[in-house]
Protein backbone atom coordinates (compact mmCIF):
# COMPACT_ATOMS: atom_id res chain seq x y z
CA UNK A 1 0.00 0.00 0.00
CA UNK A 2 1.20 3.48 -0.82
CA UNK A 3 2.15 5.95 1.87
CA UNK A 4 -0.67 8.37 2.61
CA UNK A 5 -0.07 11.82 4.02
CA UNK A 6 -2.81 13.98 5.51
CA UNK A 7 -2.18 17.68 5.02
CA UNK A 8 -4.01 20.97 5.25
CA UNK A 9 -5.35 21.95 1.85
CA UNK A 10 -4.15 25.08 0.09
CA UNK A 11 -5.81 27.32 -2.48
CA UNK A 12 -4.07 25.25 -5.14
CA UNK A 13 -6.38 22.37 -4.14
CA UNK A 14 -9.60 24.40 -4.57
CA UNK A 15 -10.37 23.24 -8.12
CA UNK A 16 -9.94 19.58 -7.21
CA UNK A 17 -12.01 19.94 -4.04
CA UNK A 18 -14.82 21.66 -5.95
CA UNK A 19 -14.82 18.93 -8.62
CA UNK A 20 -14.97 16.26 -5.90
CA UNK A 21 -17.92 17.99 -4.26
CA UNK A 22 -19.84 18.07 -7.52
CA UNK A 23 -19.06 14.37 -8.02
CA UNK A 24 -20.08 13.53 -4.44
CA UNK A 25 -23.45 15.28 -4.76
CA UNK A 26 -24.17 13.39 -7.98
CA UNK A 27 -23.09 10.07 -6.49
CA UNK A 28 -24.72 10.24 -3.07
CA UNK A 29 -27.80 12.42 -3.65
CA UNK A 30 -28.30 12.25 -7.42
CA UNK A 31 -27.98 16.02 -7.33
CA UNK A 32 -26.38 18.18 -10.00
CA UNK A 33 -24.48 21.11 -8.50
CA UNK A 34 -23.14 24.00 -10.60
CA UNK A 35 -19.34 23.69 -10.50
CA UNK A 36 -18.78 27.45 -10.50
CA UNK A 37 -20.99 27.97 -7.43
CA UNK A 38 -19.27 25.12 -5.61
CA UNK A 39 -15.88 26.56 -6.58
CA UNK A 40 -16.90 29.92 -5.08
CA UNK A 41 -17.98 28.11 -1.92
CA UNK A 42 -14.66 26.27 -1.65
CA UNK A 43 -12.71 29.48 -2.33
CA UNK A 44 -14.70 31.21 0.44
CA UNK A 45 -13.26 28.75 2.97
CA UNK A 46 -9.73 29.67 1.93
CA UNK A 47 -10.57 33.38 2.07
CA UNK A 48 -12.06 33.15 5.57
CA UNK A 49 -10.59 30.57 7.95
CA UNK A 50 -13.58 31.07 10.29
CA UNK A 51 -15.65 29.09 7.76
CA UNK A 52 -13.51 25.99 8.20
CA UNK A 53 -10.53 24.23 6.70
CA UNK A 54 -9.98 21.38 4.30
CA UNK A 55 -7.74 18.37 4.79
CA UNK A 56 -6.30 16.43 1.86
CA UNK A 57 -5.29 12.77 1.78
CA UNK A 58 -2.37 12.46 -0.59
CA UNK A 59 -0.56 9.44 -1.97
CA UNK A 60 3.08 10.40 -1.43
CA UNK A 61 4.46 7.90 -3.96
CA UNK A 62 2.04 8.95 -6.71
CA UNK A 63 2.19 12.60 -5.70
CA UNK A 64 -1.55 13.05 -6.04
CA UNK A 65 -4.51 13.84 -3.85
CA UNK A 66 -7.02 11.02 -3.30
CA UNK A 67 -9.61 12.66 -1.10
CA UNK A 68 -10.59 15.51 1.14
CA UNK A 69 -12.86 16.63 3.93
CA UNK A 70 -13.97 19.94 5.40
CA UNK A 71 -13.81 20.73 9.11
CA UNK A 72 -16.14 23.34 10.57
CA UNK A 73 -16.79 24.43 14.16
CA UNK A 74 -19.90 24.53 16.32
CA UNK A 75 -19.84 26.00 19.82
CA UNK A 76 -21.57 23.94 22.52
CA UNK A 77 -22.66 25.96 25.53
CA UNK A 78 -23.71 22.71 27.21
CA UNK A 79 -20.15 21.41 27.07
CA UNK A 80 -18.22 24.70 27.06
CA UNK A 81 -16.30 23.48 24.05
CA UNK A 82 -16.20 23.12 20.29
CA UNK A 83 -17.60 20.34 18.18
CA UNK A 84 -15.65 19.83 15.01
CA UNK A 85 -17.95 18.85 12.16
CA UNK A 86 -16.58 16.65 9.39
CA UNK A 87 -18.26 17.63 6.15
CA UNK A 88 -17.88 17.27 2.41
CA UNK A 89 -16.06 13.93 2.63
CA UNK A 90 -14.86 12.54 -0.68
CA UNK A 91 -12.45 9.75 -1.60
CA UNK A 92 -11.80 8.91 -5.23
CA UNK A 93 -13.55 5.69 -6.22
CA UNK A 94 -10.36 3.79 -7.11
CA UNK A 95 -8.88 4.68 -3.71
CA UNK A 96 -11.85 3.51 -1.64
CA UNK A 97 -11.37 0.52 0.60
CA UNK A 98 -7.72 1.45 1.22
CA UNK A 99 -8.28 3.20 4.55
CA UNK A 100 -8.03 6.72 3.13
CA UNK A 101 -11.00 8.07 5.09
CA UNK A 102 -9.81 6.22 8.20
CA UNK A 103 -6.48 8.06 7.96
CA UNK A 104 -8.22 11.43 7.60
CA UNK A 105 -10.57 10.63 10.50
CA UNK A 106 -7.74 9.50 12.79
CA UNK A 107 -5.85 12.69 11.91
CA UNK A 108 -8.90 14.79 12.85
CA UNK A 109 -9.36 12.91 16.15
CA UNK A 110 -5.70 13.35 17.08
CA UNK A 111 -5.83 17.08 16.35
CA UNK A 112 -9.13 17.48 18.21
CA UNK A 113 -7.87 15.69 21.31
CA UNK A 114 -4.62 17.69 21.29
CA UNK A 115 -6.49 20.99 20.92
CA UNK A 116 -8.02 20.95 24.40
CA UNK A 117 -11.04 23.10 23.49
CA UNK A 118 -12.74 20.43 21.35
CA UNK A 119 -15.45 18.43 23.11
CA UNK A 120 -16.28 16.10 20.22
CA UNK A 121 -16.38 15.35 16.52
CA UNK A 122 -19.61 15.08 14.54
CA UNK A 123 -20.76 14.48 11.01
CA UNK A 124 -23.98 13.93 9.18
CA UNK A 125 -24.67 11.46 6.42
CA UNK A 126 -27.42 11.19 3.83
CA UNK A 127 -30.08 8.84 5.25
CA UNK A 128 -29.85 6.45 2.31
CA UNK A 129 -26.04 6.32 2.24
CA UNK A 130 -25.78 3.08 4.19
CA UNK A 131 -22.22 2.40 3.03
CA UNK A 132 -20.89 5.65 4.51
CA UNK A 133 -22.92 5.16 7.68
CA UNK A 134 -21.40 1.70 8.13
CA UNK A 135 -17.88 3.13 7.69
CA UNK A 136 -18.50 5.79 10.34
CA UNK A 137 -20.00 3.24 12.71
CA UNK A 138 -17.09 0.84 12.14
CA UNK A 139 -14.68 3.64 13.11
CA UNK A 140 -16.44 4.06 16.45
CA UNK A 141 -18.84 6.91 15.77
CA UNK A 142 -22.29 6.55 17.32
CA UNK A 143 -25.60 7.38 15.70
CA UNK A 144 -27.17 10.22 17.67
CA UNK A 145 -30.72 10.76 18.81
CA UNK A 146 -30.93 14.05 16.90
CA UNK A 147 -32.82 14.60 13.68
CA UNK A 148 -31.78 17.35 11.32
CA UNK A 149 -34.11 20.04 9.98
CA UNK A 150 -33.36 22.86 7.55
CA UNK A 151 -34.64 25.62 5.35
CA UNK A 152 -32.49 25.65 2.20
CA UNK A 153 -32.28 29.01 0.36
CA UNK A 154 -29.54 27.88 -2.06
CA UNK A 155 -31.96 27.06 -4.88
CA UNK A 156 -33.42 30.56 -4.70
CA UNK A 157 -30.05 32.21 -5.39
CA UNK A 158 -29.55 30.67 -8.84
From TrEMBL:
The keyword Transferase applies. Pfam families: Acetyltransf_1. Its EC number is 2.3.1.189. Residues 4-158 form the N-acetyltransferase domain. Gene3D superfamilies: 3.40.630.30. It comes from the Bacteria. GO terms for molecular function: mycothiol synthase activity. Keywords: Acyltransferase, Transferase. InterPro entries: Acyl_CoA_acyltransferase, GNAT_dom. This is Mycothiol acetyltransferase. It comes from Engelhardtia mirabilis.
Amino acid sequence: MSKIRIRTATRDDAGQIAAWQVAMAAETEDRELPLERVRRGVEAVFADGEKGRYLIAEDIELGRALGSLLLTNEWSDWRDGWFWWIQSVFVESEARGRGIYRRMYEHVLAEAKADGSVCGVRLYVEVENEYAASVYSHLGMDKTSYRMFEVDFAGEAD
